[in-house]
Specification:
The protein has 249 residues and is of the alpha+beta class. The protein is built from three helices and 15 strands. It is 16% helix and 29% strand. The chain has an eight-stranded antiparallel beta sheet. Strands 6-12-10 form a three-stranded antiparallel beta sheet, with no helix packed on it. A two-stranded antiparallel sheet has the order 1-2. Belongs to the phosphatidylserine decarboxylase family. PSD-A subfamily. It is found in: Cell membrane.
Length: 249
């Protein structure tokens, strides 16, 4: 994922820019926009104005802002924008703990820390790779469309597991979970692809959740209730498990 290098010593240039719209959303915006123009042309202003607002909302939902990703092997960055709603010790997804005959080393069954990030319809919905490495597995599982904020959504909702392995063998799994409104999970990667940390790897349409399973011995550097930014917020530091407390204010 080539891009401009910026650092904490002032190197590089930064300025605000209007976010691009991801190609996945342009067709939706174009479709609603065309209907808006047709209704305006025939004099149905009462319908054209709401459609104009809907066009703006659709394009805003699929916005794809640029992000600056910290380039440190010890960092695991957030794969999604949103609110940290759950931090729990749980076993890894069972689909990734079984040997599927592919030759890819399965995850262990011992509990690890799972960080759940809830994305509302107002959040950016482009998901990004938490680490750089090789995509080992992409497993889609059909299911329900329960409220993505519920704990059981991790086991019952439509979801997609993505497992990335770094060159040193470190594996990080994250799961894209559809919610009440989300009806499609769109991957940008497939097994065998090599990705950089912070690279765009998929999206979930219209409200959803992402679960990240941290490696053993690693605890998050984010707090319950904290808002985080995909590709930029350092979610965890490999091998670091110190308690961090915060105050809601």
């Amino acid at each position: 994922m080539p891009g401009e290098i910026l650092d904490n010593q002032g190197r590089g240039e930064a300025s605000w820019r209007w976010p691009a719209v991801h190609p996945e959303g342009r067709k939706f915006g174009l479709g609603v926009g065309v209907v808006c123009l047709v209704t305006a042309a025939i004099g149905w202003q009462w319908l054209a104005w709401p459609l104009a607002l809907l066009t703006f909302c659709v394009l805003a939902f699929f916005r794809d802002p640029r992000r600056v990703t910290p380039q440190e092997d010890r960092f695991i960055v957030a794969p999604a924008d949103g609110l940290v709603t759950l931090i729990q010790k749980v076993p890894p997804p069972r689909e990734l703990t079984i040997d599927d005959g592919s030759g890819i080393r399965p995850l262990g069954t011992d509990p690890v820390t799972r960080v759940s990030i809830f994305m509302s319809v107002f959040d950016v919905h482009i998901n990004r790779a938490p680490i750089g490495g090789t995509v080992r597995r992409v497993i889609y599982i059909p299911g329900k469309f329960l409220n993505a904020d519920l704990d059981k959504a991790s086991e019952e909702n439509e979801r997609q597991h993505i497992l990335i392995e770094r060159g040193d063998g470190l594996m990080v799994c994250f799961t894209q979970i559809a919610g009440l409104v989300a009806r499609r999970i769109v991957p940008f990667v497939k097994p065998g692809d090599i990705v950089a940390g912070g690279q765009r790897i998929g999206l979930i349409r219209f409200g959803s959740r992402v679960d990240v399973y941290l490696p053993a011995g690693t605890e998050p550097k984010v707090l319950l209730g904290q808002r985080i930014v995909a590709g930029e917020t350092v979610l965890a530091e490999v091998g670091q498990a110190a308690l961090i407390e915060g105050v809601s204010q």
